[in-house]
């Protein structure tokens, strides 16, 4: 939706995840000047206005729960000669935006107004041309990187983003797909980081995009199939981008029976069908440097770890504290409510299992976090007693078909 807005001509999208986060982002793109039409299930058409062609929206850009959509669009607005106000639900209003705003200020963005701590609601005014910068991200965050690169599209010159640890690279891939000049080189000790350089003020051209299946959504039926005895599930067309499959790597180390079938290229990404069979899992040590490749999957990994034999230690989870909720605390509370042995040591989560189903039977406070809700519903599929979550409405933000999809596989989810 965002690249379609910034392009000249028509962009057609297939396989779109029609969650509330995406739809809110589409509404924001419309408000900034794009013409967007739904053609059918997962099929959309976007007619853009090109870089520099955006207009001031008539009202507030309400992103609901969409952290990614709001932060990326701040990059867009921050680099364009428009003024826009960003807002969202109670959860989004708690999330830190200063990490996005700091580099945008260096690029010429003005903050007209903001809530305490640089949170939404906030109003940004972009410059006639953004200032090209070299920026080293303070934390491994694809959202920071992407916001800077999107602002840099209207900068005369080269903008470089340096990250100490490589984060998901969908923005770089899409920039190339739409016609921008982007180079990526290894950076830092061991080449674990990356330097991404973008030449500003390209002419982006609308194109056709097939969206691969989201690994973060696939994580829930995947883990469910591993922990429910006798299961065998095939999940089709899952993105196999190496910067997104940290969960699959970890589960394979735990002894999971996961086979990659029919690998192919779609939408500039490698995809594969995943055949998953119920497995006896064992505890492992998950290195901190793997976190960027699986940051959204730790809650459901903690569920898998509860069924594993031995100790699973998930290291370096500080970024979980600034998600839709304090996910580290929310996961720990959910584990405690269901009788699962665990501790938090600093930013590390340690889960201890004995290879048998945990007790379950608890009620989990989701804190308006869709991934907490889905993870503990998955726990309930194989725990000794059913698990209850206090609210499931927010699941629609990222996986609106979660309940019918899981029910079709045999899950009993009521409420």
UniProtKB/TrEMBL annotation:
Its main location: cytoplasm. Monomer. PANTHER family: AROM/DEHYDROQUINATE SYNTHASE, PENTAFUNCTIONAL AROM POLYPEPTIDE. This is 3-phosphoshikimate 1-carboxyvinyltransferase. GO terms for cellular component: cytoplasm. 3-phosphoshikimate binds at residues 141, 143, 296, 323. Residues 2-404 form the Enolpyruvate transferase domain. It catalyses: 3-phosphoshikimate + phosphoenolpyruvate = 5-O-(1-carboxyvinyl)-3-phosphoshikimate + phosphate. Pathway: Metabolic intermediate biosynthesis; chorismate biosynthesis; chorismate from D-erythrose 4-phosphate and phosphoenolpyruvate: step 6/7. Coiled coil: none annotated.
């Amino acid at each position: 939706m965002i690249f379609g807005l910034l392009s000249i001509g028509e962009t057609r999208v297939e396989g779109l995840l029609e969650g509330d986060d995406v739809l809110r982002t589409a509404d924001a793109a419309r408000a900034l000047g794009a013409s967007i039409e739904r053609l059918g299930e997962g099929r959309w058409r976007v007619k853009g206005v090109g870089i520099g062609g955006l207009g001031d929206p008539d009202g507030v850009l309400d992103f609901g729960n969409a952290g990614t959509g709001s932060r990326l669009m701040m990059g867009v607005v921050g680099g364009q000669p428009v003024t826009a106000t960003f807002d969202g639900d109670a959860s989004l209003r708690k999330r830190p935006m200063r990490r996005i705003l700091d580099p945008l200020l260096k690029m010429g963005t003005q903050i007209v107004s903001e809530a305490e701590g640089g949170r939404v609601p906030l109003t940004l005014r972009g410059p006639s041309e953004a200032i090209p910068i070299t920026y080293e991200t303070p934390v491994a965050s694809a959202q920071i990187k992407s916001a800077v690169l999107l602002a840099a599209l209207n900068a005369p010159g080269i903008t470089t983003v340096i990250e100490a640890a490589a984060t998901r690279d969908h923005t770089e891939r899409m920039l190339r797909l739409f016609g921008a000049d982007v180079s990526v080189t290894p950076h830092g000790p061991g080449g674990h980081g990356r330097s991404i350089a973008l030449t500003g003020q390209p002419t982006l051209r609308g194109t056709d995009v097939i969206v691969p299946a989201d690994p973060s959504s696939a994580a829930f039926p995947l883990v469910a199939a591993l922990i429910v005895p006798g299961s065998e599930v095939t999940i089709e067309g899952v993105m196999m981008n190496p910067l997104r499959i940290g969960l699959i790597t970890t589960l394979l180390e735990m002894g999971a029976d996961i086979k990659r079938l029919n690998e192919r290229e779609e939408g500039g990404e490698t995809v594969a069908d995943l055949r998953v069979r119920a497995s006896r899992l064992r505890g492992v040590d998950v290195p901190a440097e793997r976190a960027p490749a699986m940051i959204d999957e730790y809650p459901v990994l903690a569920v898998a770890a509860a069924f594993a034999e031995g100790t699973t230690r998930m290291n370096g989870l500080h970024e979980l504290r600034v998600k839709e909720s304090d996910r580290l605390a929310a996961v720990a509370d959910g584990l405690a409510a269901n009788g699962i042995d665990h501790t938090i040591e600093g930013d590390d989560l340690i889960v201890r299992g004995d290879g048998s189903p945990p007790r379950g039977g608890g009620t989990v406070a989701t804190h308006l976090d869709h991934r907490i809700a889905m993870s503990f519903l998955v726990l309930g599929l194989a725990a000794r007693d059913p698990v209850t979550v206090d609210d499931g409405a927010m699941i629609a933000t990222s996986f609106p078909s979660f309940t019918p999809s899981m029910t079709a596989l045999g899950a009993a989810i009521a409420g």
